[in-house]
């Protein structure tokens, strides 16, 4: 059996919310009046440890506040490329360049405007292979690059 956590252990916002909810239940059944509810609520808000919070409920029956279990702090950050295959990354990066190159080629060399259908065709094929939204990979890549530059 594990021993009870120390009363000196710091409390969380969730612990305070639990205490305020318990106080509300005591108010609703008439164990405390509205003035006492206000005083005790202020004490709950100011409490920093489990001991301080528990003292507020010494003269009251259940319900008392529940204390949450310690939560591990270290979590693995979400990978920016999650769900995007290498081929999607390549195509997502190349597609905007291909559109710009096609337009530049049409404007500078007088190639027929039908040439713009090349990147449009690649987009359509990509959507057929990888599903709707595959070409948003270049948008995700751009957002990631901006975050890296800003951070």
UniProtKB/TrEMBL annotation:
Superkingdom as given in the UniProt entry: Bacteria
Transmembrane segments: 93-116
Keyword field: Membrane, Transmembrane, Transmembrane helix
Transmembrane as UniProt keyword: yes
A family per Pfam: DUF1707
Keyword Membrane listed: yes
Domain (DUF1707): residue spans on this chain: 9-61
Protein name per Swiss-Prot or TrEMBL: DUF1707 domain-containing protein
Species the sequence originates in: Amycolatopsis coloradensis
